Amino acid sequence: MKKHSFEYFLNHIPKDEVSRAQSFVGDSIGIFQPKNYLFDVKVIPEEYQAVLLHGNTPAVKIGKKEYFCRKGSFLFIEPGMEVMVPRVENPPAGNFTTLLVKKELFEIISLEFTDRETLKHNGIMNQFSWYFKDAIERYKCELLNYGHSHPMMIHSLSIQIVCQLFRDMQVKTPQLFQKPGDESALIKKAIEYMHDLHNCSITLNEICGMLYISPSHFQRVFKYHTGISPYQYLIDIRIKRAKEMLSKNNHSLSEVASLCGFINQAHFSAVFKQRCGVSPSSYKKSIFNACAGWNN
């Protein structure tokens, strides 16, 4: 562990717990993965802090407010806020990651994201993203494999972690959606993504991850611009493509289902009939009969 970094935080933790915890410390970022929760220990961090919760966790008290956390979410804590985990019966094992960010780095990046040095936002955030977790893992790997041999690399990874923290906190930059056309450009990009990958198992989180936007906000914006949900829009793309393939009579129903991104033929048939009023086989037959009639 690098000396003289995050001393105030470490001094509030028993030395035996510090020695058992995994620690990855640079000049601006400290990552700690303890084995146990510290109950009834009051800590007032001097740095910005995010706690990623990987499993069941007891309540956490920040200031005078108690937060009941869920697996996969994270807590954001400002400097100077008192933090404590009240003691509980049958406590779970520690399964969390504590991220500490020095004020200097946090405030530089905050200026870019918000035009303000400080950010008032204590409490539970949404689910932390794969991108946030991956940025932390890459920082840990750098220190494990190379130590502090490449300071610029460590600084670069530190910036990426804090930027992703802001994105996971859904902090809007002053430029984001500032112009009326900005949302349209975002929706256009999402629609292009759906068209390109309609035959794959696309999830809402994948689309939002690609756009760096929260699922709830994306769904609201998408429906405002298109009148339907992203899922309904994707289904419409798949149904349209399925009709094109059925009209050519070159594929079986199971092949059409697979090539258009449906789970299986049964799923394809159910959705097609719900949307079109007839089954895929009946639609295919009607197209074939119509063509035969024209030829006669």
From TrEMBL:
- Source domain of life is Bacteria
Its transmembrane ranges are: none
**UniProt GO molecular function:** DNA-binding transcription factor activity; sequence-specific DNA binding
Which keywords appear in this protein's UniProt record, sorted alphabetically? DNA-binding, Transcription, Transcription regulation
* Keyword Transcription part of the UniProt annotation: yes
In this protein, which residues make up the domain named HTH araC/xylS-type?
188-286
Q: Which InterPro entries does the record match to this protein? A: Homeodomain-like_sf, HTH_AraC, HTH_AraC-typ_CS, Tscrpt_reg_AraC-type_HTH
The UniProt entry, under Pfam families, shows: HTH_18 (PF12833)
Please report the name of this protein according to its UniProt entry: AraC-type DNA-binding protein
Q: Which organism is it from?
A: Natronincola peptidivorans
